Amino acid sequence: MDLLPAAIIILAASSLGIPLFQLLGDKKSKIPAYILIAVLTVSLVLIGANTIWPTTETSFGGLLGSDALGGFFALVTLGMTLMVVVASISYIRNANSPIYYGLLSFTALGMLLLSYSQDLLMLFVSWELMSLPTYALAGYDKKRAQSNEASVKYAIIGAMSSAIILYAISLTYGLTGTTQIIPAVRALASQPFNPLVSVAVILFVAGFGFKMAIVPFHMWIPDVYEGAPTTVSTLFASATKSAGFVAAIRVILAFATVYVLTQNPLFTLANVIAVLAVLTMTLGNVAALTQKSMMRLLAYSSIAQAGYILVGFVAYAYSPLSSTATIGMTGVLFHILNNAIMKGVAFLAAALVLLELKRGDLQAYNGLGKRMPITAFTITIAFLALAGVPPLSGFWSKLLLFLSVINGPFAWLAVAGILNSAFSLGYYGWVIKRLYMDEPESAEKVSEPLAFVIVFAVAVGLIIGLGLFPQIVTNFAPSAVKNIFPG
Amino acid sequence: MSYLLSLLIFIPLVGTPFVYLVGRRNKHAGIYLTLGLSVITFLLALYSFWFIYAHSPALGQYALVEKYTWFNFQFIGLDYMVGLDGLSAPLVVLSSLLSILVIIGSRRLIDHHEAEYYALLLLFEGSIMGVFLSLNLIVFYIFWELVLIPMFFFIGVWGGPRRKYAALKFILFTFTGSTIMLLGFLYFYLGMPSPSFDIPTIQAMIQNHQIPVGIEYLPLLASFIGFGVKLPVVPFHTWLPDAHVEAPAPISVLLAGVLLKMGGYGILRISISLFPQASYEYAWVFLVIGAVTMFYGAIVALLATDLKRMIAMTSINHMGFVLLGAYATVATGSPLGVEGAIFQMFTHGLAIGALFMLSGYVHEQAGTREIPLLKGLKVTMPRTAVLLVLGSAAAMGLPPFANFLAEFMIIAAGISAYSILGVTILVPVITSGYFLWFIKRSILSSPEGSATQHDIPKPDALAIASYLVPLVILMIFSYLIIAPSVPVAQFLAHLAGLRGG
Q1: For B142, which of A391, A426, A474 is closest by C-beta distance?
Q2: Which of B78, B127, B153, B183 to mutate to test the interface with A (most CBs of A within 10 A)?
Q3: B63-73 and A58-59 beta bridge pairing
Q4: For A324-351, what is each residue's pLDDT tens digit?
Q5: H or E segment and range at residue B67
Q6: Quick one: closest CA in B to A322, which residue?
Q7: CB of A112 closer than 8 Å to CB of A373
Q8: What pairs with residue B78 in β-bridges?
Q9: Domains of chain A: which residue ranges?
């Protein structure tokens, strides 16, 4: 039996129901948070069961297909949303909590639908369902000018990217007569070469690129991540970013399976993505090195991580359906999962520091190992994993990504990626140095709320666990990779 | 006992969190727990060394091999594989012995965050065991990187005034080197007709001429960058003086005694044995780099005024011998060089360890390590002075310390490769020069003022003497180390000669 509709229905019900608590009067109530935690947990169980015992059914007239690829991303995005909600219990203290959790629930629903979308229109609708609540969430600190700026900036950029995606969808529909992704790709395969398709593919890259945080569509990232409430930034950096990647995998890579961008051997999709990948990781790492604020450092390192993920895209676009493509895409899925966990927990740790010390500059992290030992340890593990230090989870995903391109014309990409990883340890190590080697400004111990500690423990457990048992992901991933373009 | 080698790795690793938890409640209990686990590890290491000595594995074979599939994915098969031979056995004994001596020596010199310190010490010991025992390139790399993390904190948290700079410089140099090395491994892996990360499998393929020579060159370069940073060789050595000088004395012992050996071990185990043809063609390059490193380390040490810096530069000088010996065998096909290199790694670890520990005590008591300011140690700190003279004699390569034998073997091997390398005989001369000069200036001079200094306590003096005793024993019973290393050296010579001549 297909369990997907059940998950969709309970998430939709909670999205519509939670805001009603606002009418009951208690605007600081924690009940909406507990309801959302319960709903997300049940959805995760349903999706998990659905992913382990897959069905071939499609829901809603072929708009959604419950495949392994969708299941993977639904688990990642909803799992990260759950972490954000748990941490928010301690973080969002003085705000209209029913609205906050209602918006989070809508975003989760959008990401769930997006993960399973098999149709461009469904994909667009879920994309909007995911994005619109986040514009409001970014401005949730309504008395802080920075937060307002983040909201406006994000909304404008988001609207622009939506428009670009919509334009690409309309081009695709015009050329193929269908909005179903796989039939559209099949239709293209039987047509002669048409440059308009390349325009559509490039527009998709740009449109999804905004959410994925790839250069040159990254300008909004540092401002919005810094300005938005930090739990919301966590959602952006881990969950909605992953959702951007699933859209790109489902659309762009499906196209890439049968379609070359131009007849010119230089201007292929693999080459275009390879250049974007190098630019993204290099710019992200170089800019991160010079930051003075933790949020901005994390934002730039988030951009750099997107660059690593694109390496696997290159492997797929260069020779789809080959074994190196499977390795590369396994690396992509693994790294998206790792990035969501590592980056998510790093943001939440920064949120806790901001909450307790009221400061976000790197100076505030001096000697944190003495004042907030659990938080400091969590940041250390997350940063070492982000740099790709074994035996943590980030090592394996990077290994697979670089392995997928090293024996071919894109070997330079692996070299660039490895050098970037080494370089990134410069700023990660710098922060770890602050945590344990610099003197704190005051010796006073700072409390670490239970909600955060639980999230930290789960995330650190996952980072180490996936590092010791990478087969959990690598055994599963190839079946998800097959869903990109089934034959 | 088939789990012996895994126990060597995992007793310290699993002990890490327990030492931390116990040490937070009771400092002394934590130290004794660390010491107990290290002693158990050392006894197991001795047993495994005896096992290698008694049942020396045949050419290209490993003893006590354990192999489990870690994970299989597409064409990537990854095995947890460990094994022991005449190359790794002495280093395993050395590492576990130095760990015990370092724990004893740290009691007085480390005075804050003890729980974290001893927990990291065990993490370090376990990962270094993993480096010396792994027979799978990726598992090797994982342990290799794991070593960096405790060392980064050792230097950065417990170090001297410029500790933060030194810690960051250390981790950036070594991490960059090792990521490049990993890239080389991946390139080599994909170039093989039937890819494998298992070192014995690759060696078998090389013997059967199944690996195209063309894919050896880039990985040789990449791995040499990784190992060269650790060894270190000129010009990748600049992290070393900072790290050694800033690290607390017990950690300098681990740095020089154990961490540098990772470089020498990697060159023998991987650079030469997996890329033998490329190594053979470019042996002269590595011989030149080795000789330059020896001279550079010796000359800079001559100019150093800080006692600890002088000892650190001596390490560079001595590790140059290892590179020279290793590639002398590649160039000539005579096993003498590799035997000398393995012997040199063992003896250097002990002699330099004693000197670093002593420099820590001198600094603690005299308040300075500047050689021109240290006067009349023979009067103010007689026990320390005696030990310093003995340690210097060992480092100079003076009989009856086994260092003499190791350096003699390497220089002899170097001459048989290229007679011009006979100039390296000058390196021990320079080394003796600066050590004797130091003894004259700081120990045999008359003390200034009447400042009384506490001498090193007797138990600690005994601990330091136990660095030096094995060196004397090994001078007489040198076959203890050399006999098991012969098959390794012959095997490396055989591999290098496969296509060379």
Answers
A1: A391
A2: B183
A3: unpaired
A4: 899 999 999 999 999 999 999 999 999 9
A5: strand B63-73
A6: B74
A7: no
A8: B71
A9: 266-479
Q: What is the Cα–Cα distance from B374 to B362, expressed in whole angstroms?
A: 9
What does DSSP say about strands B63-73 and B76-84: parallel, antiparallel, or unpaired? Answer: antiparallel
pLDDT at A263 > cutoff 80 = no
Predicted pLDDT at A487: 67
Q: What is the DSSP letter of A19?
A: G
Integer Cα distance of B183 and A406 in angstroms? 8
- Chain A contact probe: residue of B68, B74, B165 with most A CBs at under 10 A: B74
Nearest one of A377, A378, A351, A358 to A441, comparing CA atoms: A358
| Residue in the structure block whose two tokens are 């392995």 | A403
Give residue B23's identity as a one-letter amino acid code: G
Q: How many CB atoms lie under 10 A from the CB of residue A174?
A: 10
Distance from B66 to chain A by nearest Cα, in Å?
Answer: 18
pLDDT band of A170, cuts 50, 70, 90: very high
Side chain identity at residue A237, one-letter code:
A
Which residues from A are below 8 Å from B183, CB to CB?
Answer: 402, 406, 414-415, 418
User: How many Cβ atoms are within 10 Å of B480's Cβ, its own excluded?
Assistant: 18
The helix-helix angle for B283-303 and B403-417 (nearest 10°) equals: 140
Which of B186, B188, B189, B223 best probes binding to A when mutated, by most A CB atoms within 10 angstroms?
Answer: B186
Q: Give me the interface pTM, i.e. the ipTM.
A: 0.88
CB–CB contact B74 A327 (8 Å)? yes
CB atoms A330 and B73 under 8 Å: yes
Residue at B22: amino acid letter: V
Instruction: Kindly calculate the radius of gyration of chain A based on its CA atoms and give it in whole angstroms.
Output: 21
Helix (H) or strand (E) holding A101: helix A97-116
**Contact state of B164 with A470 under an 8 Å Cβ cutoff:** no
> What pTM does this model have?
0.92
A475 at B interface, C-beta within 8 A: yes
Cβ separation of A402 and B175 shorter than 8 Å?
Answer: no
- A352–chain B nearest CA distance, Å: 24
Closest CA to B244 of B171, B299, B153, B313: B313
B183 near A CB under 8 A: yes
Residue B117 forms contact with A (CB below 8 Å) = no
How far, in Å, CA of A174 to CA of A320, rounded? 25
How is residue B388 written in tokens?
């310093």
**Which helix (H) or strand (E) element contains residue B499?**
helix B479-500
Element (H, E) at B383: helix B382-396
Q: Is A110 helix (H, G, I), strand (E, B) or coil?
A: helix
Verify whether the Cβ–Cβ distance B186 to A326 is below 8 Å: no
Minimal Cα distance from B179: which residue of A?
A: A418
- CA dist A111 and A417 (Å) reads 29
Which of chain A's residues have a Cβ under 8 Å away from the Cβ of B73? Answer: 327, 330, 471, 474-475
Q: Annotate A52-98 with DSSP letters as a single string.
A: HS----EETTTTEE--HHHHHHHHHHHHHHHHHHHHHHHH--SS-HH
How many angstroms away from the CA of A162 is the closest CA of chain B? 37
- Give the pair of three-digit tokens for residue A219: 């300008």
Q: Is B3's Cβ below 8 Å from some Cβ in A?
A: no
Residue B271 and residue A389: Cα distance in Å, rounded?
22
**B218 in reach of chain A (CB within 8 A):** no
Residues of B in contact with A395 (CB under 8 A): 142, 145
Phi then psi for B274, rounded to 5 degrees?
A: -100, -20
B168: closest chain A residue by CA: A429
Q: For A447, which DSSP code?
A: -
**In terms of C-beta density within 10 A (0-12 exposed, 13-18 middle, 19 or more buried), how is residue A289 classed?**
middle
Region B348-363: mean pLDDT is 92
Which tokens belong to B322?
A: 């290892």
pLDDT tens-digit profile of B161-198? 899 899 999 999 999 999 999 999 999 998 888 888 99
Contact A220, A210 (CB under 8 A): yes
